[in-house]
Amino acid sequence: AGLPERLVLPTDRPYPQVADQRGATVAVDWPVRLQHQVARVAREHGATSFMVMQAALAVLLSKLSASTDVAVGFPIAGRRDP
Q: In the chain, where do the E strands start and end?
């Protein structure tokens, strides 16, 4: 509610006239040491590693888009809550 239809991010090519919803895959190195550090931060704040990484993604998108209105959604299986 009240969010822009599309988050304006710097791109290497113009957005298509009609969004095709296609994306790409990027392999990310996720070393065990980094996983442990994220888990430690999560424990210290009563959160999960997923929540820490989701927050980091939201901060990154906010910085890249110069917007404080950032919404990120993830399909999660097996959840009973909306």
A: none
With a CB cutoff of 8 Å and minimum separation 6, the contacts of 49 are: 35, 38, 39, 42
Q: Tokens representing 1?
A: 């509610």
Count of domains observed in the chain: 1
| pTM of the predicted structure, to 2 decimals | 0.76
Domain holding 57, by residue range, is: 32-65
DSSP annotation of 16 reads P
In this structure, is residue 79 part of a structural domain?
A: no
Classify residue 70: in a domain, yes or no.
no
Residue 23 pLDDT class (50, 70, 90 cuts): confident
CA distance 58 to 69: 9
